[in-house]
Amino acid sequence: MTQRNPTACLLVIGNEVLSGRTRDANIQFLATRLGAIGIPLREVRVIPDVRATIVATVNEVRARFDHVFTTGGIGPTHDDITSECIAEAFGVPWEPHPEAWGRLERHYKPGEFNAARQRMATMPRGAELIDNAISIAPGFTIGNVHVLAGVPRIMQAMFESLAPSLQGGPPIASRTVHADGVMEGRIAEGLAAIQARWPALDIGSYPYYRMGGGGVALVAKGADAEAAEAAARDITTLLRAVGGKPVQGEPPV
After folding, report:
1. Could you tell me which residue, 172 or 62, shows the higher pLDDT?
2. For a tag site, which of 153, 154, 211, 248 has the least CB within 10 Å?
């Protein structure tokens, strides 16, 4: 019997992302790393620093996905409300976490572990810490929700600390074939037939444009590496049939 891959959802939390002030740099990293350990990222939502929105969204997606990851909103300022919202979503107290409190108290000089910094050691009751090798203040897991920092370098360090504990499925295999000068309209029907032939795979078409012309990149992705390889061969045949010169891999930028 084929092993089922767990699924994941990412909540990007922060008004600064929605306003355009900050460009999110975490989605690609998490999608790639989760795929490598067999936990495909199935949905991403960007939501504001609004308590009711965070609580409702967390409760919705944690019931639908095996894993929920959040990024952002766990710093020391007044608008960093993710942690207390997660506590509300789970119906547990938001309180000092003894281990996190001890780590931060030891890290700061006497008198510097102030009320703002104490917020970073205050978490939902029952939370398990996610280590942070960059700036000490940890993330945490409660239930199937993993709460990470928004700063990319810190988020990545937290994820690498968490990753060994995540139970995944078969790694997600991805095969890409591209061809310059081929437009999507010429291959749509043939590509639909390939998708029907390989229903367990996600087969996507991604046009690209650059100086000197453009083309299309076709991607076959799924838990069955042999199927992805076979679909890539079918894609290569299709591209040749319309006069393209298919090349394995992503097109150069």
Report:
1. 62
2. 211
